[in-house]
Design goal:
The complex is a heterodimer.
Chain A lengths: L9 H11 L13 H45 L5 E8 L2 E3 L13 E6 L5 E11 L4 E9 L4 E9 L9 H4 L1 H5 L9 E3 L10 E3 L5 H33 L1
Parallel strand pairs in A: 7-8
Antiparallel strand pairs in A: 1-2, 1-3, 3-4, 4-5, 5-6
Chain B lengths: L1 H12 L15 H7 L14 H6 L4 H24 L9 H23 L1 H7 L10 H11 L4 H31 L1 E2 L2 E2 L14 H25 L2 H14 L1
Antiparallel strand pairs in B: 1-2
Helix pairs in contact in B: 2-8, 4-5, 4-7, 4-8, 5-6, 5-7, 8-9
Classes of the chains: A alpha+beta, B mainly alpha.
């Protein structure tokens, strides 16, 4: 690209700008043609795009691998260390293990089914999210369909108040509180429970976060529970 | 267009108006480098880039990651803006600067997500918001677009380091009081009851307020200690900042 500025050395140009206080290019410029504005920005955009694409090509497989690893660990945790797990897609009100080629599987809701070493099904891992106190809380929980009870719960994402709602993610006795609970869940204040098997202790000072967690689990089971029952029934009939 | 330009020139030449990049006498490279670190620290003196300084400084780790990301974007942008200053027509300079800055931010975002995913998650939207950090665009407009490449990079390194200093000050105070730890290492033992407020947004404002108070007090004392005749460049700098 041609240099339209006044001739002069680097130092001379520098001095001239300091004297006039003008910005670079202003001294010798009367009208910059429109094509130059467009082509400069266009070329800069093309170079920027190329740079981003190159970095993206390097970074994306690593980001995806990390995301898959986080999900794998979460499933491992809520299904109590299954030997393997498979993905089931929700398609037209049914759980299917494979989707037709013309359906984009990334758009579909899904649950994960875990198996132990003997190939026995240990339960279903279901992820879900709802707005909490600050932002969306996302969690995953394990559900044993045979006994209709929860296995465990793990919060995947939360921006709740540190020290209060954040405890849903970090505090161990709260997490284990979901073990063996029979849905639909019912939140009770600590120490006020009647011993019912649907009760979960709420966190003092984090009523909204606690309710959100309970709400997520209940709503997800409400919509997916019947499909899971059908799936379990069918596999029992076919597999024996 | 011509009218605009001449009025712009009048403003630029108005007596007493601070003209960025045009000091009374030529600055040395060392001054270009050091100015941003302390005397014209972007956060503590110029009060720029406060959004990340308040939002993500709840731990030292987050502060460090944000400081490094901003440093990378600032130095990269200043280098490119200064290198291509003759090719960028004045009319589209803001668009070009933002394009350059946004590209570096996208790269920083991807690199953080690939290398340190947990920190990337903790910083959240604030990485993307580096694009609109006024400190970065300010250095391009006031310095890099007018200066040789070497000086622009020195200035960016100094300003980026100054931002990092401020972020680490905020981060260590807030993590220490709000969590009883530094870089995740517990210092006060299990009996310490953390001041939760320090890692919440109000803690950011409180910490910044007290740091600015201490900084102002220190500068005031220093100014008193220096004879009036030798003081004027400092005085000018602090009045302008105020």
């Amino acid at each position: 690209m041609s240099d339209e500025r006044a001739p002069g050395t680097e130092a001379g140009g520098e001095l001239e700008r300091q004297e006039t206080g003008a910005r670079p290019g202003a001294a010798a410029r009367s009208e910059v043609p429109a094509w130059r504005l467009v082509s400069t920005l266009g070329a800069a955009g093309a170079v920027a795009g190329l740079a981003i694409v190159l970095v993206f090509g390097w970074a994306n497989p690593r980001i995806e691998a990390h995301r898959a690893e986080v999900l794998r660990q979460a499933i491992h945790e809520v299904l109590r260390a299954p030997d393997s797990y498979a993905t089931l897609f929700v398609l037209e009100g049914e759980l299917v293990s494979a989707v037709p080629a013309d359906v984009d599987s990334t758009e579909l809701d899904r649950v994960y089914v875990g198996y132990d070493a003997a190939g026995e099904r240990v339960g279903f891992a279901i992820a879900g999210g709802l707005p909490g106190y600050q932002d969306v809380i996302r969690l995953i929980f394990g559900y044993d369909a045979e006994h209709s009870e929860l296995l465990a719960m793990k919060v995947l994402e939360n921006k709740e108040t540190p020290g209060l709602g954040e405890k849903t993610e970090k505090k161990r006795d709260i997490l284990s509180g979901f073990d063996g609970v029979v849905p639909p869940l019912e939140g009770v204040k600590t120490g006020r429970g009647t011993g019912d098997e649907s009760e979960v202790d709420m966190i003092t000072g984090a009523t909204i976060s606690s309710r959100t967690v309970i709400e997520i689990i209940n709503r997800r089971l409400e919509s997916l529970g019947p499909m899971i029952d059908v799936y379990v029934e069918e596999s029992r009939e076919s597999g024996g | 267009m011509t009218v605009h330009e001449s009025s712009e020139e009048i403003v630029r030449h108005a007596p007493g108006a601070p003209v960025a990049g045009l000091p009374g006498r030529e600055r040395t490279p060392a001054q270009d480098l050091l100015r941003g670190v302390w005397r014209e620290n972007p956060v503590l003196v110029q009060l720029l880039g406060l959004c990340p300084a308040l939002a993500v400084t709840n731990t030292v780790e987050n502060s460090l990651a944000m400081g490094l990301a901003t440093f990378f974007v600032l130095v990269g942008s200043s280098f490119l803006v200064s290198s291509f200053k003759r090719l960028i027509p004045s009319e589209i300079r803001i668009a070009a600067f933002i394009l350059i800055i946004a590209t570096f931010v996208t790269i920083a975002d991807l690199l953080l997500a690939a290398i340190v995913p947990d920190i990337h998650k903790a910083l959240g939207a604030f990485i993307a918001l580096i694009v609109v950090n006024c400190m970065i665009l300010g250095r391009q407009e006031a310095f890099a677009s007018k200066r040789p490449v070497g000086r622009a990079v020195l200035d960016a390194v100094g300003t980026g380091a100054g931002f990092m200093v401020a972020m680490l000050m905020m981060g260590s105070i807030r993590e220490l009081l709000g969590n009883g730890s530094l870089l995740g290492v517990s210092l006060f033992g299990p009996s310490y009851e953390p001041w939760i407020i320090m890692i919440l947004p109000p803690g950011g404002f409180l910490t910044l307020g007290f740091i600015l108070l201490a900084f102002g007090w220190w500068r005031g004392r220093r100014a008193e200690a220096v004879p009036a005749v030798r003081r004027w460049p400092h005085g000018v700098a602090s009045r302008r900042a105020a």
